[in-house]
Design brief:
Blueprint (H helix, E strand, L loop, with lengths): L2 H21 L8 E6 L4 H4 L6 E7 L2 E2 L22 E6 L2 E8 L6 E9 L2 E6 L2 E4 L21 E4 L2 E4 L3 E6 L1
Antiparallel strand pairs: 1-2, 2-5, 3-4, 4-7, 5-6, 6-11, 7-10, 8-9
Length: about 170
């Protein structure tokens, strides 16, 4: 095998390997941006201690869109504007609020709300369009007939199972 042929084969294999690696994003590697909200300024407005809140902002990762499907008797495919699936992970969220006795100044503890990390998958809305002409009609010698155009909205979906718990620490 010539060196130019070996080089061409190596370049093609490198391109295929990089394309396959770029499309594969594991669900555990979905990023989220950590956020801690500064709520200390609430102590000047409300007569209670400020709560603590730490969470993250999920970053959705897009996947390959659904392919349009051909339907017999229609000129345009079903799902001309495809839905795009996205996946992300909802990050852990923790909030803590000091609880005081309503009739006194004694502190009862800290109420903590914590949510677990959860996988989330969703699809964007799509659309299906109908052409303003029918399929060729044999009784009209193969000519299409004008019809009213149709528009359908493909609904978005959202799937996930987030969970949270409430604790009172003393």
């Amino acid at each position: 095998m010539k060196s130019t042929t070996r080089g061409s084969v190596a370049a093609v294999l490198a391109c295929v390997a990089s394309a396959m690696g770029a499309g594969a994003v594991p669900a555990a590697a979905t990023p989220s941006v950590p956020v801690t909200l500064p709520l200390e300024s609430l102590e000047h407005v409300l007569p209670v201690p400020a709560p603590e809140l730490a969470t993250g902002v999920p970053v959705p990762v897009p996947h390959a869109p659904e392919a349009p499907a051909h339907v017999a008797g229609r000129l345009l495919p079903y799902g001309a504007l495809p839905r795009v699936p996205l996946s992300t992970e909802l990050p852990v969220t923790e909030a803590g609020v000091p609880v005081t006795e309503p009739l006194g100044d004694r502190e009862l503890g800290v109420a903590r709300i914590a949510s677990e990390a959860a996988d989330l998958s969703l699809t964007t809305p799509g659309a299906s369009l109908g052409a303003p002409l029918s399929a060729p009609r044999p009784e009209l010698y193969g000519q299409p007939e004008p019809v009213l155009p149709e528009v359908a909205v493909l609904t978005p979906t959202l799937r996930g199972a987030p969970a949270a718990g409430l604790l009172l620490d003393r």
